[in-house]
Amino acid sequence: MPEPSYDREDIGETRTAGVAAVGGSDPSYGYSRTPADLPPGDITASSGSARPPLGGTGEVKVPDAAAGGEGTGDSGPAGHNDAWLIQKATTFYTIGRNYMDSNITLGWERNLYHFRGEHGPTSPYVRRDWKRARTFRPKTRANVKAQEAAHAAAAFATQDYLDVKATDPTNEKEVISAAINKALLQKRLELVPWNWFVTAQGAFQDTKNYGICISHQYWRYRAVSEIVPAFDDQGQPIMSDDGTTPMGRENKTVIEDMPCCDLVPPECMLFEPTCDWRNPMQSANWMTYLWGLTAGEALAMMEESDPKTGRSAWRKYSLAQVLTASREQIDNRVRRAREGRHRIDPVTSPAGDEFTMVWAHLNIAREKGVDICWWTLGTNLVLTDPVPLTEEYPHLRAGERPFRMGYSVIEAHRNYPDGDVAQMANLQEEINSVANQRLDNVRLVLNKRYFIRRGSQMDLEALMRNVPGGGVMTNDPEKDVQVVNTPDVTSSAYQEQDRLAQDLDDLVGGFGQASIKAGGKQMDRAGSMDVLQGAAGAVQDYGIKIFFETWMQPVLRDLVRLEQMYETDEVILAVAAKKSPLWERYGTSEVTDELLQQNLTVDINVGVGNTDPVKRVQKLIFGVTQVIQLPDMARRVKSTELADEIFGALGYKDASRFFMNDQELQEHMKTTPPPPPPPEIAIKQQELGIKAKENDQRHQRETQAMQLDHEWRMKQVETSDFLGHMKTATQEEIAKMKDKTARDLGAAKEGNRLAEVNMKRADAAHERLQKKLEPPKPPPGKGPPK
């Protein structure tokens, strides 16, 4: 049942795992929220009944009971009155239902009958006066079941089917947030009572039968409150001022607090036929979601109240008004076909009481680019005021809606594509026709037909019974009765059926005995069935890939966002924190809103070509082997995840059953001695030990020889170095002596030269002195002076 998604900004900034109660809150809650922390539109239920999304946080107008529950005037922030809301709801329902009944319903009926192994509504085999064979060969169900098995093998082979990554890998907060949100969602999907595996398989089955699947994602929160009375000193209960209400402490018990993904029957979702075929749920200008509930549940929700406003969640009406207003205007043939011809419609109840099924409509309309929504009971009574859709579902972004539509077959520009059941419907009918005609022929061969003369006196009852060993009384056996011999059916009938079965398998990716027989020559050339099986697997993988891209991946993204917005379970938060780098790096399990609400991307850890487990393991090992050969990649292999993937492909959730983790391995090594080896291995070990000793001795001898050689070479080097040093020193000494001798000779020569110069100077000085001491000579012609 649909539930609202609430904005829990009032919860607080920190969601600390492992804390039973937040400071200041009543510990009796056992929960980290108080009534004051309830988000806008949240309801504290006084009973265990479920409730739908509520309308807004503004003032809710309660209809006057005396006026028959009818609201008046403008209602809601959109400013539309009740007449406008009813008129729009009626228009949406009429257009959507008429389009579906005129174009879609008959095909869905036929598909459902074929899926259940029954003839379609337009088949002549369903006539009451049909006396011939009416066998149905269940090729449709067999093919759909095979594709469901392939989808289960591809999507749920391993436990780690979800991959949440940080938009910015360099941002540490986003990396930690991705690990926490991944662990949160996987843990939630293991614990939710609505069973994620069954939901995903049902959605995939819907795409085969109807061509589409539709789901509703929201957060379901239900709580029951009761007043624990307070007593005075005399033991009397304390009453309110008016003396009517007992005073005391409110005790709140949370019944449900979890993300939900509900499959919506396709006939219960009406939308604009001219919307974008690629994403009808987000592009349609209007849509109506039909939610079935009992009249008693509707009345209970009218009694529930918003704890912040004290007003009723739904407008109050009487049981008679509820039963009159919400009856389905047109009998739903799709639902009756889904139940089968031999079952009554479970929605039809002749008794007009609180257990009668009624229909509430969630109407969504886009006005000026903004989606508004309101609830109506059928198309006659308004239940809530119109509010923006983002107020009803605060986790949504602008332009988003809480519904997703998926496919397994793409037909461009068609909002309702044909699924595999519809595509194989004509071939299924031809197979039935050939099989029934062959059965009629066999019956005629085994039970002859007779020409009987009119008016003949004959025991017709005995003739018709045709009992073995019996007799028939007649007046003239030769003329009264003529046996019509019918030739037996030839092999051409079986060949025709095999060819039809092969055509059907080729169309939808099946692989059966007909394909093997038809491809016999090709298999002889190829040597195996890999060629045919690979072609069939490619078609199956293509449908699974489309389903992943259009439904499963968007739904998982919605669920991750719901976890980011509303998760408050302390145990689940603690488990998720310990599986993330938050615990490894910081040793804490404190998870804050800021840490959870990071920009993340969600992918599915499954690719095309993974439906065959053997080929899946072979491809995985081949890829790992090739990648390990790249530089610096061998030490980056995550061995545990690789083992989980291999065992997951073989049908196990992971490899934990077969291999010990690090802690178990360490404890095992400490407490358990190694087991003795087998005799063959022991002999090999002795041989290896002897060879190891020989190698050690040879190594020692070679080491000693190398050491002696090294020492000899070192001494030789030292001797050579000494002789070279002495030679160099001698040459240097000789050079020094030569230099000294040359300097002495030069000095001697310089001394002799200086002595000669001095002698010459002395002789010159002596000559000059002598000249000065000699008497002057008289001039010529004169005698010496007297």
Layout: helices, strands, pairs:
Layout: E1 14-16, E2 74-75, E3 80-81, H1 82-103, H2 105-115, H3 139-155, E4 162-166, H4 172-191, H5 196-209, E5 213-229, E6 248-264, E7 269-271, H6 280-283, E8 286-294, H7 295-303, H8 319-325, H9 333-339, E9 357-367, E10 370-377, E11 381-382, E12 387-388, H10 389-392, E13 403-406, H11 420-423, H12 425-446, E14 449-452, H13 460-465, H14 477-480, E15 481-484, H15 491-508, H16 513-518, H17 520-526, H18 530-566, H19 570-578, H20 581-586, E16 590-592, H21 593-596, E17 600-604, H22 613-628, H23 639-649, H24 662-671, H25 679-773
Antiparallel strand pairs: 1-16, 2-3, 4-17, 5-6, 5-13, 7-8, 8-9, 9-10, 10-11, 10-12, 14-15
Helix pairs in contact: 2-9, 3-5, 4-18, 4-19, 5-18, 12-15
What keywords describe this structure?
17 strands; 13% strand; six-stranded antiparallel sheet; three-stranded antiparallel sheet; 47% helix; alpha+beta; 25 helices; 786 residues; single chain
Give an overview in words.
Strand 9 and strand 10 form a beta hairpin. The protein is an alpha+beta fold and 786 residues long. It has 25 helices and 17 strands. Strands 7, 8, 9, 10, 11 and 12 form a 6-stranded antiparallel sheet that branches. Strands 6-5-13 form a 3-stranded antiparallel sheet. A two-stranded antiparallel sheet has the order 1-16. The radius of gyration is 49 Å and the shape is elongated. The relative contact order is 0.13. Helix 3 packs across helix 5 (196-209), helix 4 (172-191) crosses helix 19 (570-578) and helix 12 runs antiparallel to helix 15 (491-508). Among the domains are: 9-422, no CATH class; 449-482, no CATH class. The longest helix is centred in the last third of the chain and has 95 residues, at 679-773.
